[in-house]
Each structure stands twice: as structure tokens, then as C-alpha cells.
Amino acid sequence: xxxxxxEYHRPGSIDAALxxxxxHGDDARVMAGGHSLIPMMKLRMADVPHLIDLQSxxxxxxxxxxxxxVTIGAMTTQHELITNDDLVRAAPIMREAALLIADPxxxxxGTIGGNVANGDPGNDMPxxxxxxxxxxxxxxxxxxxxxxxxxxxxxxxxxxxxxDEILTEISFAVPKGGxxxxxxxxxxxxxxxxxxxxxxxxxxxxxxxxSIAMTNLSDTPVFSADAAAALVGTDCGADAMADAVxxxxxxxxxxxxxxxxxxxKKHVAGVILRRAIERAWSRA
Length: 284
Ligand code: FAD
Description:
This protein is of the alpha+beta class. The chain contains twelve helices and 14 strands. It folds into three domains: 7-53, Uridine Diphospho-n-acetylenolpyruvylglucosamine Reductase, domain 2; 61-173, Uridine Diphospho-n-acetylenolpyruvylglucosamine Reductase, domain 3, CATH 3.30.465.10; 195-279, 2-Layer Sandwich (Enolase-like, domain 1), CATH 3.30.390.50. The protein has helices at residues 14-24, 37-42, 78-83, 85-90, 92-98, 104-109, 112-118, 125-131, 149-152, 225-231, 238-251, 262-283; strands at residues 7-9, 28-31, 50-53, 63-66, 69-73, 135-140, 143-148, 153-155, 158-159, 166-173, 178-185, 192-203, 206-215, 222-223. Strand 12 and strand 13 form a beta hairpin. The N and C termini lie far apart (48 Å). The structure holds flavin-adenine dinucleotide. It comes from Phaeobacter gallaeciensis.
């Protein structure tokens, strides 16, 4: 598996990267860790005559927790999400989810920006970003704009990002309450058969607010407002959890593939969501 010939660019700033994107239009594509893009190029499923490596752009890196807001540069690796103490304190669900992505070798190089920009329904970060109600910052020739993670995903590999825009950073408010990321996969290093991100805030023994998103159960991540609503105001008991699972099953749309038939995936989704709710509630 050898990719077709391409020219390699390594700009040192966002502006320089945007200039190469502008110059070559559809023939150019940015690369972050390359752990999704390079396999696609080797399989000849992606033809990229001009590859723009973002590795040397320092302004795309780093994690800041400031004034109740978490900001993560697009080129921050999944390994850095796991090892950054400020982030682990502010949003432990990030570490819990990142540890379930692939294996250490992939996580040392794969980035949060590449994971969310890719648009692969199997990627874990997009659903988590929807659960956290994250904001994506995109920079293009006409300036900078912000898009909510909940509005970003349109179909498999199709997002709101324009071809000439670069995702520069991701931000979200420090979440309140208990958090849990639960994932079922066939083996270490596999993508999810089903995964659930859950955040629950508890006040006086009741669910004060809830956020739930599911991964790899549709052609986009699924933010299930109805599943969350089924828990709010309850004591998070068995009936409320059953209602949340029923609501979630109404929102997902899995297809049969080598991870199993549709009914199996729905069953796994229910089990995974229940586990994530139970764990988030125990931490709330
Ligand atoms: P790249 O591969 O470089 O880019 C991916 C796409 O995003 C490309 O289209 C690229 O043009 C675009 N892009 C990248 N950065 C930007 C940017 N800043 N602005 C605009 N567009 C951008 N992922 C999971 O979530 N869960 C898993 O379980 C999992 N298992 C894996 C197992 C293996 C064996 C491998 C090889 C990968 C696995 N991955 C998994 C994918 C891995 O996490 C990738 O690293 C990640 O999805 C893409 O990140 P990247 O930095 O490598 O991006």
C-alpha cells in the first residue's frame, strides 16, 4: 500500500498553512497526526497532491484551563489529554475517553483536532465534544468563526468545515457533576461497537442537569437531548434509566457491519448507556 505521489509542505504558522491551502485548493489537505489520513492515502481512498503537515505550528498546541473554560489547541495529542493534570482535574472524562482510543502508539501522535475534524463516526472525541457542548474555532481566508460541536457533523466524513478552513482550537466550560465515558469494543485498539458519554449534575439527590451523546451508532455522533431529559428531575433510578435508554434508542440509527447486526448494536448501546449513567451518577 503506497500512496500516490504528493508534495509535502510544513508551514510554521496558521497563516502560512492557509496560504498553501488557498494556492492549491481541492488538491491540498492538512495533516495532523496522520493516523487517519495516511491510511486513507495508502489505500488510495484519499488523493492528496499537496499534503500540509501542521506539526510545526506552535500556536495550534497546548491546553489551558482558565476562568472556568477549557481551551485545547487542535494539534494537542491524545497522549497529552491523558497526562495534563489541569485537564484531568477540570474534565476527567477527557482522560477516560482518550485512554480508550486505539493504543499508546496511536495516542502519542493522533491529535484531538484530527479526531474531531475527520468526521469518522467511529472517532470517540466528536460524541464527547457534543456531550461537553464544546465550541470549535475555525480559521479561513475570511477570518475566524465558531461552530458548536452539536451543529458540526452533517454525515460520515462531512462536516460544517469548509475545505479552506483549519480547525484551530476546541473550548468548553468546565463541566459540573459526575462524568463517565463507556465504550464497548471487540479488542484493544478497535473502534467502538457503541460508546456513551454522560455528564450528570446532582442537587438534593436529583438529577439537576444531564448531557448524553453516543458514538458509532449513526453516520454522525448522536447527541440525545431526549435521553438526557428523561433523567432530569429524577433520582436516576431504574425507571428513569430505562426511559433514557428508550429515548436514546429512538435517536440512533446503526447499520449492520463487521461489528454486528443492528439489533445487537442497539442492545450494546443500551447496556453501555446504562453503565455510563450509573458511573456518572456515582461520581456526581
Ligand atoms: P489526521 O489523520 O492527520 O487527519 C484526519 C482528518 O482530519 C484529515 O481529513 C485531515 O485533513 C483533517 N484534519 C486534521 N487536523 C485538522 C485541522 N486542524 N483542521 C482541519 N482539518 C484537520 N480514533 C478513535 O477515536 N477511536 C479509536 O478507537 C481509534 N482507533 C484507532 C486504531 C488505529 C489502529 C488507528 C491507526 C487509528 C485509530 N483511531 C481511533 C484514529 C486516531 O485517533 C486518529 O489519530 C484520529 O482520528 C485522527 O487524528 P490525526 O491527528 O491522526 O488526524
